[in-house]
């Protein structure tokens, strides 16, 4: 992420996003350009989105790509998770008159990259845990076949489950399963 120097209001950030060809993250008045992803990063996100969309068909939940902006109301962070799931009505941030910033994800999935891994697992995870509707957070490793599932136990407690190789992560909040082999499947490798 590129570090920003100038401070902005959330409304100014939204105005910048409306005309920018790239996505930015917003926190504490600062705006950062988000890092682009690798082909593997993009493939993992599509594999996850497809798996979840197939399992959620006919249910009142929807899978969203990294084009959906999520706002953590408790801290003000606005960001674009790689994959998110929302069940029921979309709840939009009152500070966004355009209704393009959602506040009620049930599941957030981030594909880790070398440049943002520490931030995602640290500061960003702390922000995400403050979203009241959020039940599951999944980190997808970039360097091995591994999923890290953070599951909400109650308002303030989370548990971590690590799933590797031929295992599967169960997202109990939406009654779906992410199979490690399916997430990392590469149809181009033969």
Automatic annotation (TrEMBL):
CDD domains: DUF820-like
Entries under Gene3D superfamilies matching the protein: tt1808, chain A (3.90.1570.10)
Transmembrane segments: none
Superkingdom of this protein's organism: Bacteria
Pfam families according to UniProt: Uma2 (PF05685)
Domain called Putative restriction endonuclease: residue spans: 11-168
Protein name: Putative restriction endonuclease domain-containing protein
Originating species: Enhygromyxa salina
Phylogenetic classification of the source organism: Bacteria, Pseudomonadati, Myxococcota, Polyangia, Nannocystales
